[in-house]
Amino acid sequence: MIIMKTDATKEQIEQVVKEIKRYGLRADVSRGAYKTVIGLIGDERKIPFDHFAVLPGVKEVMRIEIPYKLISREYGKFFEGVSEGMVIKVGNVRIGGDEPVFIAGPCAVESKEQLFKIAEGVKTAGAHILRGGIFKPRSSVHSFQGLGAGGWEAAEEALSWLSEAGKKFELPVITEVRGETQVDLVAEYVDILQIGARNMYDQDLLTRVSNKGKPILFKRHFGAGIEEFLSFAEYIAAEGNKNIILCERGIIPIGKGKSYTRYTLDLGAVPAIQKETYLPVMVDPSHGTGRRDLIFSMSCAAIAAGASGLMIEMHYNPAEALVDGPQAITPEELKEVISACQRIHQLVAPRRTEN
Ligand code: PEP
Ligand code: MN
Predict the structure, then answer these.
(1) What angle, 0 to 180 degrees and rounded to 10, lies between the N-to-C axes of helices 295-304 and 331-354?
(2) Do 248 and 260 touch, CB atoms closer than 8 A?
(3) Of ligand 1's atoms, which has the minimum distance to the CA of residue 247?
(4) What is the tens place of the pLDDT at every residue in 170-210?
(5) Which of 17, 65, 194, 237 supports an S-S bond with 70, CB 3.0-4.6 Å?
(6) What are phi and psi of 2, to 5 degrees?
Protein backbone atom coordinates (compact mmCIF):
# COMPACT_ATOMS: atom_id res chain seq x y z
CA MET A 1 0.00 0.00 0.00
CA ILE A 2 1.35 3.41 -0.97
CA ILE A 3 0.31 6.40 1.11
CA MET A 4 0.63 9.68 -0.76
CA LYS A 5 1.53 12.97 0.94
CA THR A 6 -1.42 15.22 1.77
CA ASP A 7 -0.20 17.76 -0.78
CA ALA A 8 0.54 15.20 -3.52
CA THR A 9 -0.57 16.49 -6.90
CA LYS A 10 -2.79 14.73 -9.41
CA GLU A 11 0.23 14.33 -11.68
CA GLN A 12 2.26 12.69 -8.93
CA ILE A 13 -0.56 10.21 -8.25
CA GLU A 14 -0.80 9.46 -11.97
CA GLN A 15 2.95 8.94 -12.13
CA VAL A 16 2.81 6.37 -9.30
CA VAL A 17 -0.05 4.52 -11.02
CA LYS A 18 1.94 4.51 -14.25
CA GLU A 19 4.95 3.02 -12.47
CA ILE A 20 2.74 0.35 -10.86
CA LYS A 21 1.47 -0.65 -14.30
CA ARG A 22 5.01 -0.70 -15.68
CA TYR A 23 5.79 -3.46 -13.19
CA GLY A 24 2.81 -5.48 -14.41
CA LEU A 25 0.71 -4.70 -11.34
CA ARG A 26 -2.66 -3.02 -10.93
CA ALA A 27 -3.51 -0.03 -8.75
CA ASP A 28 -6.49 0.52 -6.45
CA VAL A 29 -6.64 4.29 -5.97
CA SER A 30 -8.67 5.54 -3.00
CA ARG A 31 -8.97 9.25 -2.55
CA GLY A 32 -9.71 10.07 1.08
CA ALA A 33 -10.59 13.44 2.57
CA TYR A 34 -6.96 14.33 3.24
CA LYS A 35 -4.84 11.85 1.41
CA THR A 36 -4.80 9.34 -1.36
CA VAL A 37 -3.82 5.75 -0.76
CA ILE A 38 -2.96 3.32 -3.53
CA GLY A 39 -3.29 -0.41 -3.09
CA LEU A 40 -1.12 -2.62 -5.27
CA ILE A 41 -2.78 -5.64 -6.81
CA GLY A 42 -0.94 -8.58 -8.26
CA ASP A 43 2.05 -10.80 -7.81
CA GLU A 44 3.84 -9.47 -4.73
CA ARG A 45 7.22 -10.74 -5.88
CA LYS A 46 7.23 -8.04 -8.55
CA ILE A 47 6.97 -5.11 -6.15
CA PRO A 48 10.12 -3.00 -5.83
CA PHE A 49 9.24 -1.34 -2.52
CA ASP A 50 12.33 0.87 -2.38
CA HIS A 51 11.65 2.25 -5.83
CA PHE A 52 8.10 3.31 -4.97
CA ALA A 53 9.20 4.88 -1.67
CA VAL A 54 11.28 7.53 -3.43
CA LEU A 55 8.77 8.58 -6.09
CA PRO A 56 7.66 12.25 -5.84
CA GLY A 57 4.56 12.75 -3.66
CA VAL A 58 4.91 9.40 -1.88
CA LYS A 59 4.85 9.61 1.92
CA GLU A 60 5.18 5.98 2.84
CA VAL A 61 5.06 2.47 1.42
CA MET A 62 3.50 -0.08 3.74
CA ARG A 63 3.36 -3.83 3.42
CA ILE A 64 0.04 -5.38 4.45
CA GLU A 65 0.70 -9.02 5.16
CA ILE A 66 -2.83 -10.33 4.76
CA PRO A 67 -4.30 -11.98 1.66
CA TYR A 68 -7.41 -9.80 1.70
CA LYS A 69 -5.73 -6.39 1.91
CA LEU A 70 -8.18 -4.32 -0.13
CA ILE A 71 -11.12 -5.24 2.07
CA SER A 72 -9.15 -5.17 5.33
CA ARG A 73 -9.75 -2.70 8.12
CA GLU A 74 -6.11 -1.78 7.95
CA TYR A 75 -6.55 -0.48 4.41
CA GLY A 76 -10.11 0.82 4.91
CA LYS A 77 -9.13 3.15 7.72
CA PHE A 78 -7.52 5.37 5.11
CA PHE A 79 -10.75 5.90 3.13
CA GLU A 80 -13.22 8.57 3.94
CA GLY A 81 -16.08 7.46 6.20
CA VAL A 82 -15.09 3.81 6.17
CA SER A 83 -13.25 3.47 9.49
CA GLU A 84 -16.44 2.42 11.31
CA GLY A 85 -17.46 0.10 8.48
CA MET A 86 -18.67 0.66 4.95
CA VAL A 87 -22.29 1.49 4.25
CA ILE A 88 -23.60 0.09 0.97
CA LYS A 89 -26.49 2.06 -0.45
CA VAL A 90 -29.13 0.29 -2.51
CA GLY A 91 -31.95 2.70 -3.35
CA ASN A 92 -33.06 4.03 0.02
CA VAL A 93 -31.67 1.04 1.90
CA ARG A 94 -28.35 1.34 3.74
CA ILE A 95 -26.63 -1.97 4.37
CA GLY A 96 -24.10 -1.69 7.17
CA GLY A 97 -25.74 1.49 8.45
CA ASP A 98 -27.49 2.15 11.75
CA GLU A 99 -30.35 -0.31 11.28
CA PRO A 100 -30.39 -4.00 10.39
CA VAL A 101 -31.56 -4.74 6.86
CA PHE A 102 -33.90 -7.61 6.04
CA ILE A 103 -33.91 -9.37 2.68
CA ALA A 104 -36.84 -11.74 2.22
CA GLY A 105 -38.71 -13.59 -0.47
CA PRO A 106 -39.16 -17.01 -1.99
CA CYS A 107 -36.29 -19.42 -2.48
CA ALA A 108 -37.34 -19.64 -6.12
CA VAL A 109 -39.58 -17.48 -8.28
CA GLU A 110 -42.28 -19.87 -9.48
CA SER A 111 -44.85 -17.62 -11.13
CA LYS A 112 -45.73 -13.95 -11.38
CA GLU A 113 -48.66 -14.45 -9.06
CA GLN A 114 -46.56 -16.26 -6.43
CA LEU A 115 -43.86 -13.58 -6.56
CA PHE A 116 -46.23 -10.62 -6.24
CA LYS A 117 -48.14 -12.22 -3.40
CA ILE A 118 -44.89 -12.87 -1.52
CA ALA A 119 -43.53 -9.39 -2.36
CA GLU A 120 -46.59 -7.84 -0.76
CA GLY A 121 -45.95 -9.93 2.36
CA VAL A 122 -42.29 -8.90 2.39
CA LYS A 123 -43.32 -5.24 2.35
CA THR A 124 -46.05 -5.60 4.96
CA ALA A 125 -43.74 -7.51 7.29
CA GLY A 126 -41.33 -4.56 7.19
CA ALA A 127 -38.49 -6.15 5.22
CA HIS A 128 -36.39 -3.94 2.93
CA ILE A 129 -35.23 -6.00 -0.04
CA LEU A 130 -36.98 -8.66 -2.13
CA ARG A 131 -35.17 -11.88 -3.04
CA GLY A 132 -36.18 -14.60 -5.50
CA GLY A 133 -34.07 -17.25 -7.20
CA ILE A 134 -34.36 -17.62 -10.97
CA PHE A 135 -31.21 -19.61 -11.72
CA LYS A 136 -31.24 -22.12 -8.88
CA PRO A 137 -28.23 -24.15 -7.84
CA ARG A 138 -29.72 -27.58 -7.10
CA SER A 139 -28.14 -30.80 -5.88
CA SER A 140 -30.20 -32.90 -8.27
CA VAL A 141 -30.64 -32.35 -11.98
CA HIS A 142 -34.02 -34.05 -11.61
CA SER A 143 -35.49 -31.27 -9.49
CA PHE A 144 -36.97 -27.85 -10.36
CA GLN A 145 -34.04 -25.70 -11.48
CA GLY A 146 -35.73 -22.31 -11.38
CA LEU A 147 -37.52 -20.55 -14.23
CA GLY A 148 -34.15 -19.56 -15.69
CA ALA A 149 -33.65 -23.17 -16.78
CA GLY A 150 -36.47 -22.68 -19.31
CA GLY A 151 -34.18 -20.67 -21.60
CA TRP A 152 -33.23 -17.01 -21.95
CA GLU A 153 -36.75 -15.81 -22.72
CA ALA A 154 -38.19 -17.51 -19.66
CA ALA A 155 -35.33 -16.18 -17.55
CA GLU A 156 -35.85 -12.64 -18.81
CA GLU A 157 -39.57 -12.83 -18.17
CA ALA A 158 -39.01 -13.95 -14.56
CA LEU A 159 -36.38 -11.24 -14.09
CA SER A 160 -38.82 -8.64 -15.37
CA TRP A 161 -41.42 -9.79 -12.79
CA LEU A 162 -38.81 -9.41 -10.07
CA SER A 163 -37.98 -5.90 -11.20
CA GLU A 164 -41.69 -5.03 -11.57
CA ALA A 165 -42.52 -6.38 -8.10
CA GLY A 166 -39.62 -4.37 -6.69
CA LYS A 167 -40.94 -1.18 -8.25
CA LYS A 168 -44.53 -1.84 -7.20
CA PHE A 169 -43.65 -2.47 -3.55
CA GLU A 170 -40.67 -0.10 -3.44
CA LEU A 171 -38.18 -2.81 -2.60
CA PRO A 172 -34.76 -3.18 -4.22
CA VAL A 173 -34.37 -6.69 -5.62
CA ILE A 174 -31.71 -9.40 -5.53
CA THR A 175 -31.23 -12.67 -7.37
CA GLU A 176 -28.43 -15.17 -7.80
CA VAL A 177 -26.23 -15.23 -10.86
CA ARG A 178 -24.97 -18.76 -11.18
CA GLY A 179 -22.74 -18.55 -14.23
CA GLU A 180 -20.78 -16.09 -16.35
CA THR A 181 -23.22 -16.20 -19.25
CA GLN A 182 -26.02 -14.98 -16.97
CA VAL A 183 -24.26 -11.88 -15.67
CA ASP A 184 -25.25 -9.31 -18.32
CA LEU A 185 -28.90 -10.29 -18.37
CA VAL A 186 -29.35 -10.48 -14.61
CA ALA A 187 -27.54 -7.17 -14.03
CA GLU A 188 -30.08 -5.39 -16.25
CA TYR A 189 -32.93 -6.26 -13.90
CA VAL A 190 -31.69 -6.40 -10.33
CA ASP A 191 -30.17 -4.04 -7.78
CA ILE A 192 -27.94 -6.59 -6.05
CA LEU A 193 -26.22 -9.60 -7.63
CA GLN A 194 -25.97 -12.69 -5.47
CA ILE A 195 -23.08 -15.12 -5.66
CA GLY A 196 -24.22 -18.43 -4.19
CA ALA A 197 -22.21 -20.52 -1.76
CA ARG A 198 -21.36 -23.07 -4.45
CA ASN A 199 -19.80 -20.39 -6.63
CA MET A 200 -17.69 -18.68 -3.99
CA TYR A 201 -14.57 -20.10 -5.65
CA ASP A 202 -15.41 -19.15 -9.25
CA GLN A 203 -12.79 -16.46 -9.94
CA ASP A 204 -13.98 -15.80 -13.48
CA LEU A 205 -17.57 -15.35 -12.34
CA LEU A 206 -16.43 -13.03 -9.54
CA THR A 207 -14.50 -10.89 -12.03
CA ARG A 208 -17.45 -10.64 -14.42
CA VAL A 209 -19.87 -9.76 -11.65
CA SER A 210 -17.56 -7.18 -10.11
CA ASN A 211 -17.29 -5.37 -13.43
CA LYS A 212 -21.01 -4.59 -13.38
CA GLY A 213 -20.33 -2.16 -10.54
CA LYS A 214 -23.50 -3.20 -8.70
CA PRO A 215 -23.56 -4.31 -5.06
CA ILE A 216 -22.82 -8.01 -4.63
CA LEU A 217 -24.08 -10.31 -1.91
CA PHE A 218 -21.27 -12.82 -1.54
CA LYS A 219 -22.11 -16.07 0.22
CA ARG A 220 -19.58 -18.16 2.08
CA HIS A 221 -19.04 -21.67 0.73
CA PHE A 222 -20.09 -24.31 3.28
CA GLY A 223 -16.57 -25.71 3.35
CA ALA A 224 -14.65 -22.45 3.36
CA GLY A 225 -12.69 -21.06 6.27
CA ILE A 226 -12.89 -17.36 7.06
CA GLU A 227 -9.57 -16.52 5.44
CA GLU A 228 -10.56 -18.29 2.25
CA PHE A 229 -13.94 -16.57 2.20
CA LEU A 230 -12.34 -13.14 2.55
CA SER A 231 -9.60 -13.96 0.05
CA PHE A 232 -12.21 -14.69 -2.61
CA ALA A 233 -14.13 -11.52 -1.74
CA GLU A 234 -10.81 -9.81 -2.45
CA TYR A 235 -11.07 -10.98 -6.08
CA ILE A 236 -14.23 -8.87 -6.40
CA ALA A 237 -12.58 -5.86 -4.73
CA ALA A 238 -9.50 -6.22 -6.92
CA GLU A 239 -11.68 -5.61 -10.00
CA GLY A 240 -12.59 -2.23 -8.56
CA ASN A 241 -15.94 -3.00 -6.92
CA LYS A 242 -15.95 -2.83 -3.12
CA ASN A 243 -19.73 -2.89 -2.74
CA ILE A 244 -19.59 -6.36 -1.27
CA ILE A 245 -22.01 -7.69 1.33
CA LEU A 246 -20.60 -10.81 2.95
CA CYS A 247 -23.10 -13.47 3.91
CA GLU A 248 -22.65 -16.29 6.40
CA ARG A 249 -25.02 -19.12 5.47
CA GLY A 250 -23.80 -22.14 7.39
CA ILE A 251 -20.97 -24.62 7.07
CA ILE A 252 -20.96 -28.42 6.85
CA PRO A 253 -22.19 -29.98 10.10
CA ILE A 254 -20.06 -32.57 11.87
CA GLY A 255 -21.10 -36.12 12.80
CA LYS A 256 -24.83 -36.69 12.74
CA GLY A 257 -25.40 -32.92 12.68
CA LYS A 258 -26.98 -32.98 9.26
CA SER A 259 -29.98 -34.88 10.54
CA TYR A 260 -30.74 -31.99 12.90
CA THR A 261 -29.78 -28.90 10.91
CA ARG A 262 -29.07 -28.58 7.19
CA TYR A 263 -25.84 -26.67 7.94
CA THR A 264 -24.15 -25.27 11.03
CA LEU A 265 -24.67 -21.53 11.17
CA ASP A 266 -21.27 -20.15 12.11
CA LEU A 267 -22.27 -17.08 14.08
CA GLY A 268 -18.84 -16.69 15.62
CA ALA A 269 -17.72 -15.84 12.09
CA VAL A 270 -19.80 -12.63 12.17
CA PRO A 271 -17.82 -10.64 14.77
CA ALA A 272 -14.62 -12.42 13.72
CA ILE A 273 -15.05 -11.22 10.13
CA GLN A 274 -16.04 -7.75 11.28
CA LYS A 275 -12.71 -7.41 13.07
CA GLU A 276 -10.96 -8.12 9.77
CA THR A 277 -12.95 -6.14 7.24
CA TYR A 278 -14.97 -2.96 6.89
CA LEU A 279 -17.54 -4.74 4.68
CA PRO A 280 -21.01 -5.43 6.08
CA VAL A 281 -21.78 -9.01 7.12
CA MET A 282 -25.25 -10.49 6.79
CA VAL A 283 -26.58 -13.88 7.87
CA ASP A 284 -28.89 -16.34 6.12
CA PRO A 285 -30.59 -18.40 8.84
CA SER A 286 -32.79 -20.18 6.26
CA HIS A 287 -30.07 -22.17 4.50
CA GLY A 288 -28.06 -22.11 7.72
CA THR A 289 -30.60 -24.25 9.54
CA GLY A 290 -32.94 -25.66 6.89
CA ARG A 291 -35.66 -25.50 9.53
CA ARG A 292 -38.53 -23.06 9.78
CA ASP A 293 -38.85 -23.66 13.54
CA LEU A 294 -35.29 -22.44 14.13
CA ILE A 295 -35.44 -19.24 12.09
CA PHE A 296 -36.67 -17.01 14.91
CA SER A 297 -33.96 -18.10 17.36
CA MET A 298 -31.11 -17.98 14.89
CA SER A 299 -32.22 -14.63 13.46
CA CYS A 300 -32.16 -13.14 16.97
CA ALA A 301 -28.78 -14.72 17.61
CA ALA A 302 -27.34 -13.39 14.34
CA ILE A 303 -28.41 -9.83 15.12
CA ALA A 304 -27.08 -10.19 18.67
CA ALA A 305 -23.78 -11.28 17.13
CA GLY A 306 -23.68 -7.99 15.24
CA ALA A 307 -24.92 -8.94 11.76
CA SER A 308 -25.88 -6.01 9.53
CA GLY A 309 -28.99 -7.84 8.45
CA LEU A 310 -30.57 -11.12 7.46
CA MET A 311 -31.67 -12.93 4.34
CA ILE A 312 -34.73 -15.07 5.01
CA GLU A 313 -36.85 -17.30 2.78
CA MET A 314 -40.54 -16.57 3.05
CA HIS A 315 -43.68 -18.04 1.48
CA TYR A 316 -47.39 -17.45 2.12
CA ASN A 317 -47.83 -21.22 2.08
CA PRO A 318 -44.47 -22.95 2.67
CA ALA A 319 -46.00 -26.39 2.01
CA GLU A 320 -46.64 -25.28 -1.57
CA ALA A 321 -43.10 -24.05 -2.29
CA LEU A 322 -41.28 -26.00 -5.02
CA VAL A 323 -37.91 -25.37 -3.37
CA ASP A 324 -36.88 -25.15 0.30
CA GLY A 325 -40.42 -25.15 1.74
CA PRO A 326 -39.25 -26.72 5.03
CA GLN A 327 -37.12 -23.66 5.80
CA ALA A 328 -39.56 -20.97 4.64
CA ILE A 329 -41.46 -18.90 7.17
CA THR A 330 -44.79 -17.11 6.67
CA PRO A 331 -45.23 -13.32 6.31
CA GLU A 332 -46.62 -13.18 9.87
CA GLU A 333 -43.59 -15.03 11.23
CA LEU A 334 -41.29 -12.74 9.27
CA LYS A 335 -42.91 -9.74 10.92
CA GLU A 336 -42.24 -11.23 14.36
CA VAL A 337 -38.63 -11.99 13.46
CA ILE A 338 -38.05 -8.42 12.24
CA SER A 339 -39.63 -6.86 15.28
CA ALA A 340 -37.61 -9.01 17.72
CA CYS A 341 -34.40 -8.39 15.77
CA GLN A 342 -34.94 -4.65 15.79
CA ARG A 343 -35.31 -4.71 19.57
CA ILE A 344 -32.19 -6.82 19.98
CA HIS A 345 -30.30 -4.48 17.70
CA GLN A 346 -31.20 -1.56 19.97
CA LEU A 347 -29.49 -3.39 22.82
CA VAL A 348 -26.33 -4.49 21.04
CA ALA A 349 -25.64 -1.54 18.72
CA PRO A 350 -24.23 0.80 21.41
CA ARG A 351 -21.96 -1.94 22.67
CA ARG A 352 -20.57 -2.57 19.21
CA THR A 353 -19.60 1.03 18.53
CA GLU A 354 -17.66 1.18 21.82
CA ASN A 355 -15.36 -1.67 20.72
C1 PEP B 1 -30.01 -19.02 -2.06
O2 PEP B 1 -29.86 -18.08 -1.27
O3 PEP B 1 -30.92 -19.06 -2.88
C4 PEP B 1 -29.07 -20.16 -2.03
C5 PEP B 1 -29.10 -21.12 -2.95
O6 PEP B 1 -28.20 -20.12 -1.02
P7 PEP B 1 -26.74 -20.77 -0.90
O8 PEP B 1 -25.98 -20.35 -2.10
O9 PEP B 1 -26.22 -20.16 0.37
O10 PEP B 1 -26.92 -22.24 -0.79
MN1 MN C 1 -33.25 -21.77 -0.87
Answers:
(1) 20
(2) no
(3) 9
(4) 999 999 999 999 999 999 999 999 999 999 999 999 999 99
(5) 237
(6) -110, 125
Determine how many CB atoms are found less than 10 A away from the CB of residue 121: 21
The answer to whether 219 touches 196, Cβ cutoff 8 Å, is yes
CB-based burial, 48-82: b 16+ in 10 Å, e otherwise: eeeebeebebbbebeeeebebbbbbbebbebbeeb
Res 78 pLDDT > 90 = no
- Ligand 1 atom nearest 136 alpha carbon: 5
| Nearest ligand for residue 217 CA | 1
> pLDDT tens digits for 253-292?
998 767 899 999 999 999 999 999 999 999 999 999 999 9
The pLDDT assigned to 353 comes to 62
Classify residue 244 by burial, with Cβ atoms within 10 Å: 0-12, 13-18, 19+: buried
**Is 196's C-beta closer than 6 angstroms to any atom of ligand 1?**
yes
Number of the ligand 1 atom closest to the C-alpha atom of 133: 3
Q: Is 247 in the pocket of ligand 1 (CB under 6 A)?
A: no
Q: Is 197 in the pocket of ligand 1 (CB under 6 A)?
A: yes
